[in-house]
Design brief:
440 residues, alpha+beta, FAD/NAD(P)-binding domain, Elongation Factor Tu (Ef-tu), domain 3, six-stranded antiparallel beta sheet, 12 helices, 17 strands, 30% helix
């Protein structure tokens, strides 16, 4: 029975391992993190650790990301299975208890009896190996392996900054000021539409908050980092403030769909939301509050938010540099390195952005290799499914000559609908077509 080597025990690596191990193939996972050695973004050595938000975003099948969830469920995705088993209240979003999520994935992989974990760093791309390799090192690929990838591919690596939001202890929040409510009272299964903690701001408080963000002390970038762009889907909160004084009010601090029960006739000028971060409900994260502020200013500024004046932080925010390859130039349609077909890439390093998107590429990488072993022809995926759109974006559908940048799943990647219809009906039509097209 052939062995597949996977570099990285993150979302993509764990998903790829599952797709192979459950079909009986031996898998060796190489993970550089140990109990004593972490990256600057990770805090544990767990499988599929969520380093930023604990949300896998909207689970409604009539959204592009919710459709991707459902497609992956039909492919028996371990990542989505664990998310479903470890979900916490979050309105229409699929948010998870971080520790339970990771532990479920680790146990499921080890229980197959086909997965061996090797705690050591892979420093060079194994181009001369006779075995199959999946590189799923994610955005925090080590410098040595990054340089090896550049040497082999002939392409300079691309990079962008990603930021992490703070997490606070629920029992330190002032519930005489805040209230529980999901926007428009949206409910999770069995929920009551009260999944988020809401902190109201009046106009004066909001503009003082904007001023504090702009004047706060930020993390200084090294010289080689200064030209690195941000990914728009994960902008630091202070970067939003720089883009216009009302930018946050139309983003994470938008007050629409929320009513303060203590003063229902007065509309809040802005509202900060907190989302449950663990299953027992003791931790909450500040939604959309990724930040590059230094720790002292984070505590000073965020404690000015109404209801958080005496809050205690379980984790402060941070920022890290992400790395991804120029996939459209160096990968084939099955995620293999064009110059060395024994090497497959998966996850965020390929240029998809987001937890679920990264796991989806791990799912495909594992399935493609398992099919090769079994003599099953891998067919090219079209742009009628969410997972096919993502694969094609990073391997062949990117506009030639333009800068390749990370991409979340979105309807702009799909083939247009064959029939004309009202805008309100299009999302359901996209989903219906995709699930009819999906071949598992």
């Amino acid at each position: 029975m052939p062995t597949v080597n996977i570099v990285g025990a993150g979302l993509a690596g764990s998903e790829a391992a599952w797709q192979l191990a459950k079909r009986g193939y031996k898998v060796k996972i190489y993970e550089q993190r140990t109990k004593d050695k972490k990256t600057f973004a990770h805090r544990t050595d767990d499988f599929a650790e969520l380093v930023c938000s604990n949300s896998l975003r909207c689970d409604n099948v009539n959204t592009a990301i919710g459709l991707l969830h459902e497609e992956m469920r039909r492919f028996d995705s371990l990542i989505i299975r664990s998310a479903d088993e470890n979900k916490v209240p979050a309105g229409s979003a699929l948010a998870v208890d971080r520790d339970g999520f990771s532990e479920y994935i680790r146990k499921a992989l080890i229980d197959t009896g086909n997965v061996e974990v090797i705690r050591e760093e892979v420093e060079k791309l194994p181009i001369d190996s006779d075995e199959k390799w999946i590189i799923a090192t994610g955005p925090l690929t080590s410098d040595s392996l990054s340089h090896s990838i550049m040497e082999v591919s002939g392409e300079d690596k691309l990079a962008f900054f990603d930021a992490i939001a703070p997490i606070v202890f629920k029992d330190s929040i002032d519930f005489d000021v805040v209230w529980f409510q999901s926007r428009y009272d949206k409910q999770t299964d069995g929920g009551d539409g009260k999944d988020y903690i809401n902190c109201p701001m009046n106009k004066e408080q909001y503009f003082e908050f904007v001023k504090d963000l702009l004047e706060s002390e930020k993390t200084e970038f090294k010289e080689w980092e200064k030209d690195t762009p941000y990914f728009n889907g994960c902008l630091p909160i202070e970067e939003m403030a720089k883009r216009g004084e009302n930018t946050m009010r139309f983003g994470p601090l938008k007050p629409v769909g929320l009513t303060n029960p203590r003063d229902p006739l007065v509309k809040s000028y802005a509202i900060v939301q907190l989302r449950q971060d663990n299953k027992i409900g003791t931790l909450y994260n500040l939604v959309g509050f990724q930040t590059k502020m230094k720790y002292g200013d984070q505590q000073r500024v965020f404690k000015k938010i109404p209801g958080l004046e005496n809050v205690e932080f379980a984790r402060l925010g941070g920022i890290h540099r992400n790395t991804f390859i120029n996939s459209p130039k160096i990968l084939d349609q099955f995620l293999r390195l064009k110059s060395h077909k024994n090497i497959t890439f998966a996850g965020q390093i390929t240029g998809v952005e987001g937890y679920v998107e990264s796991a989806a590429m791990g799912l495909l990488a594992g399935r493609f290799i398992a099919n090769d072993f079994e003599g099953i022809e891998n067919k090219e995926l079209n742009n009628k499914t969410a997972i096919g759109c993502l694969l094609n974006y990073i391997t062949k559908n990117h506009e030639e000559g333009s800068d390749f940048q990370p991409m979340n799943v979105n309807y702009g990647l799909f083939d247009p609908l064959e029939e004309k219809m009202k805008k309100v009906d299009r999302k359901a039509a996209y989903s219906k077509r995709a699930l009819e097209e999906l071949v598992v």
